[in-house]
Specification:
The chain is of the alpha+beta class. The chain contains three helices and five strands. The two termini are 23 Å apart. This is Anti-sigma regulatory factor (Ser/Thr protein kinase).
């Protein structure tokens, strides 16, 4: 079963995205990490991609959740984005590597004028 939410690309709607994620990924012991990943993708689309609309789909596949996050901002492959060099401390640039690390799988494609990031998380089990 897939649930979908579309909101304006504005930080005022981050809480609504979080509530949606927590409601539809409630069985996962990783729900806090899932929420963190969605928040990171949304924040990047708003602040850097000049998106106007955000859309999140959560597909409950029983043993895992498949999330598809789409935005209509500038093209940006979040999967191939460079991580910060080791040992270099600066503000920013840590969110996407974190999302890659905490998700079971992460893919990107540009389709129909949208950035589409697909994330997979375990539905149960431990963090």
């Amino acid at each position: 079963m897939t649930a979908t939410l579309q909101v304006p690309a504005d930080t005022a709607f981050l809480a609504q995205l979080g509530e949606f994620t927590q409601r539809h990924c409630a069985r996962s012991s990783q729900v806090v990490l899932i929420d963190l990943a969605v928040t990171e993708l949304a924040t990047n689309a708003i602040r850097h991609g000049r998106a106007r609309t955000l859309r999140l789909a959560v597909d409950d596949r029983g043993d895992e959740y498949c999330l598809t996050f789409e935005d209509d901002g500038e093209p940006f492959d979040s999967v191939s984005a460079e991580a910060q060099p080791t040992g270099e401390l600066r503000e920013g640039g840590y969110g996407l590597p974190l999302v890659r690390r905490i998700s079971k799988a992460m893919t990107y494609e540009r389709r129909d004028g949208l950035n589409a990031v697909r994330l997979v998380f375990e539905a149960g089990g431990s963090v």
